[in-house]
# Entry
Amino acid sequence: MEPYPTGSAGNTIDLGFAQLDVQRAARTGDPEVVYGEGKTPAQIVSALRALHAAHPDRAVLATRLAPAALARLAEELPAAWLDEAGRLAILGTPPAPVGTVAVVGAGTADLPVLREVAATVGVFGAGCDEVVDVGVAGLHRLLAQRDRIAGADAVVAVAGMEAALPSVLGGLIGVPLIAVPTSVGYGWHLNGLTAWLAMLNSCAPGVLTVNVDNGFSAGVAAARIARRTARP
# Structure
């Protein structure tokens, strides 16, 4: 990692509505990410373009994008890769992957969060193996993928409803395991609070839980674990 300046000059790009942290990659190894909620489509385009110009050798990521923002990005940044399901965009080429993260989803309804995890893992420099629709209602589906999942350097389990998937996985594998509760479920699931509490109270050792629907943070952590684990 290269030394970074300690003064303020050259550390930020002033866009008027945002102060972009262009030295974050020097400090942490990874560039700043654009969080789309609360920003206009024009602001998202401007921020993503400026970050990529500051890091032309790195992919930059924008998350939580509304349809209007995705449409604007398609018009103004045609080189960007867009994922409507994951509500995200990537501008630039992700780095060569180091290590592997298995991203395991309980159901198809969890795919938007799973896609956010997967894209983040790639932008942050690890390989991603997506294992989808293997929730505990059909346990044979998960057991059939056990060896594949256990071969990863880190695992992210994405689940809503009662969120049993991470607990079951925690008893099947000995890999660093990050649990992501989603706001998916019938009735009084409290917008993911039920899943979050279930994951926090897992009896399986080593299950680490992030906030509801926070696929981004899980992806960052898992990619960093995988990169550290796999490097010589």
